[in-house]
Design goal:
Largest sheet: 2 strands, antiparallel
Number of strands: 4
Distance between the termini: 9 Å
Helix content: 40-55%
Oligomer: single chain
Strand order of the largest sheet: 1-2
Shape: globular
Structural class: mainly alpha
Number of domains: 1
Order of helices and strands: HHHEEHHHHEEHHHHHH
Number of helices: 13
Length: 322
Amino acid sequence: MDGSFYQDREPNDIEKEIKNLSQKWAEQTQPGEHFRFDAFTEALELHNNGIEPHLLTTDQLITYGVESGKKLLFGNMGAYISQDNQLFWRYCSSLLLDFHHAKPPHPIRENSDLFRLFQACMANMLTERGNPLPLTAQSFLADRAEPMLCASYLFYPLIESLSRVILKDYMQPNGDITRAFQVGPVAYAPPDQGKGKTKCSNLKHSLAFAVEQIENPKLKAGVTELLDSLKRFTTNNGGIDLLFSMRNDALHSGASLAPIAGFSATLSCLLGIEIAKNNIDAYRKRICPIPLFGINMWASLYAQICKFPRGSAKCPLPDQVQ
């Protein structure tokens, strides 16, 4: 990557280009009706136009995630995962799951339960299915492990856990309320502060209120836009309502959730960016594509498919690209 895409460009111009390419991609594939993929479509993917996560500012990275996330679902809840999605997930995993020498402690890594759940979700998203030939017991099991299906179930508790971390001023990790708030007609309050539910175990409410509390306006608008993109699959409900109803259908009737796994991965990464907001730029400066005793394996996975400047020990930030 020589950085030529970024020369003499304002940050807003890059974000507009990301959106413009995504719009052209949608027009080419017609995701609302069916799905058409050809060389023209592939040429419109972000990475094929010199746009990769490690070369973006944090706000541009958010736009990249939102736009690539909106392209995941098409037609009747079919799913298409492109390299743009893989790049975003791997890069965000390197920010949110790799070890970084920075203070204060990493807000996700220091929470062991959240960290392990996040890792399990992303590992399933990046796991390739086994090759059935030659047929062995191991390849038989690997080909039927359905990692994306497993991840789709795991992402629901992850999204709820991430929402509760964002709402740390309002509730404890287990959902016990410490400060009063309201979501629609439903009130929540501590036991000693008037009427209201004293525990929030409703994913829809915790996610909706967490989105309201996101401090970065770009991220708040982006997450809202991403969730709103689900509205095209329902006639009566919003995006969060659809996400919630799919969870209930899966848990109580065994309906397949596999197509929603990619969407949930992108949403989780964006929520993770909010949680790590105070140090996100420091983490980005420390990303190294060379495996170092297993502490930065997520960055190494990202380096496998991105166009890292070879010979450089670190990912350059946009103003460092030559």
